[in-house]
Specification:
Chain C: Pfam families: ABC_tran, BCA_ABC_TP_C. The complex is a heteropentamer of chains A (313), B (292), C (248), D (233) and E (378). Chain B has 292 residues and is mainly α. Chain B contains eleven helices and two strands. Chain B has a domain of 196 residues. In chain B, a hairpin with a 2-residue loop joins strand 1 and strand 2. Chain D contains ten helices and ten strands. Chain D has a six-stranded mixed sheet, sandwiched between helices. In chain D, strands 2-1-4-5 form a four-stranded antiparallel sheet, covered by helices on one side. In chain D, helix 3 packs parallel to helix 6. Chain D is globular, with a radius of gyration of 17 Å. Classes of the chains: A mainly alpha (313), B mainly alpha (292), C alpha/beta (248), D alpha/beta (233), E alpha/beta (378). Chains in contact: A-B, A-C, A-E, B-D, B-E, C-D. The interface between A and B is large, with 43 and 46 residues. Bound molecules: adenosine-5'-triphosphate (2 copies) and magnesium ion (2 copies).
Amino acid sequence: MTARDVLPILLFGAVAALLPVFVTAGTLLNFAIFTLILCLAAQGWNILGGFGGQYSFGHAAFFGTGAYATAVLQVRYGVNPYVTFLAGIALASVVGWVIGFLSFRSGLRGSYFALVTLAFAEVFRVLSNAVPFTGGAAGLLIPLNQRAANFQFESRGWFYLLVLALVVVALLLTRALERSRLGAQLVAVRENEDAARAVGVDALRVKLSAITLSAAMTGAAGGLYAQYFLYLDSTIAYGTWISVEALLAPIIGGAGTVFGPVIGAVILHTLAEATRMMVGRIPGIDLVIYGVLLILVVRFPPRNLLPWLRGRR
Amino acid sequence: MRNFPPEIVMEAVANGLLTGAVYGLVALGLTLVYGVLHIINFAHGALLTLAMYAAWVAWAAFGLDPYVAILPLVPIFFALGYGVQRLVIGPASRGEDSNILLVTLGLSIVLENAMLAIFRSDTLSVQVDYAMEVIEAGPMLLSFPRVVGFGVAFVVAAVLFVLLRMTDTGRAIRAVAKERTGAALVGIDVGHVYAVTFGIGTACLAVAACLLLPSFYVNPRVGNAFVLVAFTIVVLGGMGSVPGALLGGLVIGVVESLSGLYLGDSLGQLGIFVIFILVLLFKPTGLFGARA
Amino acid sequence: MSFLQIRNVSMRFGGLMAVSDASFDVAEGSITGLIGPNGAGKTTLFAIVSGFQKPTSGQVLWRGAEITARPPHVLAAEGLSRTFQIVQPFAGLSVRENIAVGAFLRHRRRADAIALAEQVAEQVGLTAELDKPAAALTVSGRKRVELGKALATQPKLLLLDEVLAGLNPSEVRDIVPVVRAIRDSGVTVLMIEHVMQAVMNLCESVHVLAQGRIIASGTPAEVVATPAVVEAYLGHGAASRLSGGAHA
Amino acid sequence: MLEVRDLVAGYGLTRVLEGVSLDVTAGEIVAVLGSNGAGKTTLNMVLSGLVKPRSGEVRFAGERITGLSPAQVMARGLIQVPEGRKIFPNLNVRENLELGSYRRAKANRAKNLEKVFATFPRLRERVAQAAGTLSGGEQQMLAIGRGMMAEPKLLILDEPSLGLSPLLVEEMFTLIRRLHGEGLAIMLVEQNVAQSLDLADRAYVLEHGAFALAGPAAEVRENPELKRAYLGL
Amino acid sequence: RAQPAAIKLGILQPVTGALAQDGEYGRLGAELAINEINATGGIKALGGAQIQMVFGDARSSPEGGTAEVERMQAEGVVAVVGGFASPICLASSQAASRYDLPYVADVGVSDAIVTRGLKNTFRFSPGFGSITAAALDNLVKLNDAAGKPAKTVVVVHEDGLFGSGMARLMGAELPKRGFEVLETISHPTPARDMSNIALRIRALNPDLIIPSSYYAEFVLLSRTLQQRRIRPKGIYCVLNGAASNYRFVREFPDAANLVMDVNHWADPRKPKTAELRRQVEAQNRFWLYNTPMNYSAVMLVADALERAGAADRAKVIDAIAATDGKFDRHIMPYGPTRFVNGQNQAGQAVNTQIQGNDIKVIFPAEFADAQAVFPWPA
Ligand SMILES: Nc1ncnc2c1ncn2[C@@H]1O[C@H](COP(=O)(O)OP(=O)(O)OP(=O)(O)O)[C@@H](O)[C@H]1O
Ligand SMILES: Nc1ncnc2c1ncn2[C@@H]1O[C@H](COP(=O)(O)OP(=O)(O)OP(=O)(O)O)[C@@H](O)[C@H]1O
Ligand SMILES: [Mg+2]
Ligand SMILES: [Mg+2]
């Protein structure tokens, strides 16, 4: 990696870090935190889906695992939340590896892979709703205890900075991946798996590395979600909403580019926020508008309108 | 595990078959669209909901029996699907698969919430006198609307099968699925074929909706309940395979019914997904092996 | 000890014997040709040697050790590289990146891999297209990319599946020395080719596959004179042109 | 029969054809030669309506067909056997052939099918095999057969000898000659320069998006420039 | 004299997504209350200030609720009422607590809502524990009064928060009170089919079915039971979506008749209840518990504003906490209001039964407007 590779990321981090200085409105900080958490989940998807071409519809499996591990370990066993957060990331990557191993070894590609991930996420959802240690259907509440040592902050600004730092780390990791041999091989597998194998790419290993890293990032997003909203249930953790969020942002912003997920997440959530304002007497109209805008964004992609947003390959 | 008397198990199997056929019909639309557009149609559930509302309106506003409503709704929904593909999905996706995904997603958001705005969130049903009728088959009581659904699903599948195998349109649909340029060069209007496929898929939903309505209900999110099952069926039956979708539907219906009987409906869902995962992992071309 | 040995390899697809009981050797440092009618099983044989397909029976030996059905990437790492008849570019990537994927096999650092890729590109005549997406190349460009990717893995044995098809005679003439130079740099070449002009020019020995069986082996001149080969493969026109006006 | 005037076309920002004019009259074989990347395939794609030209005009049988859809072009009898075959891999051989007459000559389907099988007996042996698993050469036969199913008035062949064994190449040229003998006009794009010129009535040589050379095949063949650039002599 | 500045009140309901139906009816209740307050002279202690509704769509998710609370905070609301689902109430009351913004949960039954020590959070209605306790007590009374016809029970529940919690409790408590639980059957929401559950019930042949599901699923279940000619001695619902819904009564009178429910319900004896119901039905909507509950919760805030004498959050919180039996503008069948740690101790669920075309309250006696029909006539 060269300075040119890293600079834009650091710049982004620095500019974004100024936000809490200028903005104290909870609305905006809350919006920014949620968007950044989704950026992280989306960046996770982007590693596997954007760079690796393995479209997953079940990143909820990783998000939820990260979230539940973070919550369950501290609620049930009193482990420090920072530790449980790391444990969540680790567990999510293990889940990623296992799902990856099972599907890639049996040669699943394309929509088949997408569907198997979807199914895994659903299995986790049904299970987490039924077993007692996740709180079952009643969900899991992380007790309110706003101390920095407890990964809960009196002021949202700190939480924001922490999430931002993690997003910057994810961006740097993605950039490093992009510039590495693994990254090149991953992209090659995306473009043509047979051809990649012919030139010595161990496709299975490459895809497993990707899904593990991918799951770790999305798991981190899950942990942050749990720590921020302090409440989890099976639909939040393993529901399809997060699988969709995770893939929507990178595809809109540019799959397989470092900044794609960030751009996509910002666009999507700005749209969502903007339409939310339009809520009138009749519920649903705002979401209809959101849906129409989504289609329009696909039709007239912002990355085409603003070529410099595209992010260098 | 609990032991049920054989007539109960038998009736559970029969119920599974009856319900499964209609699942198969929903899956049929999905498998067809998947086979040609290579993409999972996220709007499938919302379109099913739309069809159910249409059938409901036909009943509530025009007094049309849901079964009779099949006749006008099939062409209407064919046209709707055709138009949606031609005017929305096609242009907006600009030929990229991942874009089609997003567009269908956007479409589902639009449809679902438009229905919420129009029909409100209430759960609606039709009241027809045969809804409660049963057919006594030996010791079993079979719900009349389901028996009808079963029969019609088979007829639709047979018609589609013949259409795809025996007619030029069918061959064109299959040809476009894999080789667009080649198809254009033999004079197939690729955009038209896409739209026809989408239209057929949507028309299948109209039939399914009319079959479901007498014994079911409709609210703005009801379609989603069927989509996940439909995915399972599509995989089980082999993506793009018409007989596979129907057979897959029957299998899933029975599996769901039996696992529901023995494990409870909640965990019974787990049964379906586990089967789903196993099939994907060990026989990804589907149980009824459509050609890869 | 022979470099590559193919021992009684058979491959069945349903009722069709695509390859049946084929055996031959490839000598180290040679350019060996594999010719035969369409559908004879040549590509299938390549797929078997390079680990993409597992033969129904038979063995492939590489420097004395059995390598049958080892995965392709392992074989590539051991120095066995192939090109595809139906070219398989990384369509969305530039020519440089395409070739670099191959180069990464033996170079961990990006800069090294890119440098090697550019060097290989020069070797196969793609320097001018380095930044073009592979999808925008013409047939011959793609064939060259195919060759470049394989070369960038720095193989010991190169399996070329009809890399000359689609090139015009003067381009064929241009690429013949490239292949020869590859061999001279120490790479053994086994090539499937229908362009007899090149086969006659390049190959030291040729094996002819017809309906899955080896029906003739020998020097190019010997093989084109074999009646069975003329009958099954060359046709009388080509045969007479080759033996008459052979400017090998 | 086919008149092309000042055709300009390209992809995105690049221009590939820079004003191409060409004629094919009824019953004639015209060879289009050119080095790789000269734009031959692009020209075919424009003629078939798959690529929209930026300017210029194409007339077929007296009618302006510029800007028509591929289906409309095809319906008029201008049939292309494309480079890279573009057969339907998931359909079997018979279905592939039948789709050849999707828009034209449907009535004569059975008859033409027999004709194709007679021309390529190998295809008859493989009727029920999925086309994607055919060998390279078999696929080429299938592509040509599919084109013939539409009873073309003008057949464009883009590198039909690609990947065929010498025997089959010979047979293919024989076949082209035969089709020509039956009165079919053919536009042949080939790398097999010598054999194409033997066969063709007239030839065009495309270079950098424009014709550098055009005329009766015999004359073109003798052109020293051509000999140097394309025949490797 | 100039009109005093309007007081902004946040109304949070999920009107899109999975919970849209409940959210709609909740909003309706809040609107009716606000209209009524404004029409009758506003908040008198504040010079007749009008209440202005700031509506937020929680989009059926906790983060949606949180985002809306943030927006309401930015708009300067004096309190937030609503949430409907427990997860939404939990997350959004917490967001509100950052700003010491009073939060009155309308329905959310999870007891965690009022046990976290949040000073700003109140619940006027009963929580899960008290509802299920009432359900059990009343069931025993009902059965005893009828001469103990019911001995065996099958519990059917949706597998979410309401249903699962209820089922667990029933499983533990019913045996202590002399009932045998033959089986506990859970189903997902949405459910596609109830034939299996019907089959199992037929095989088990229980005296009593205790279902706890959302509207659509219960309708499906009861219709399937009807179709399969399964007729127990009674259906006794707990926190059920349908048995307290007039749509069910209207559309499927045969399946609905005599179904009992333990649920939130308005006090049928208060004249205001009937008046409100007429207003709702005049809008072509059905009469559901969400409406009176939100109506009452808004009235609670209004009452607190009157007593606080200022649109000041801290004062409003204190005032709500100090609410007592004098607060009578609500229409719930509760005794004198008294808050302990944010929970109204008087909040309670009642037993209802569908009788003919109407939903009647059959327990507790002081609110009842009909006699229970149990066991069902053969
Ligand atoms: N996966 C498969 N399934 C069924 N048949 C196959 C499969 N792959 C190849 N074949 C058949 O095996 C035979 C040999 O094919 P192969 O591709 O090896 O021929 P080839 O010698 O390379 O021919 P060409 O010179 O035309 O490329 C052909 O008849 C082909 O149809
Ligand atoms: N889809 C495309 N996008 C961008 N550029 C393209 C595309 N297809 C072809 N080109 C470019 O257009 C030019 C002409 O290509 P074309 O395929 O027409 O050549 P050709 O004469 O048929 O070559 P060949 O003999 O190799 O088939 C080439 O420079 C090629 O890179
Ligand atoms: Mg081959
Ligand atoms: Mg070409």
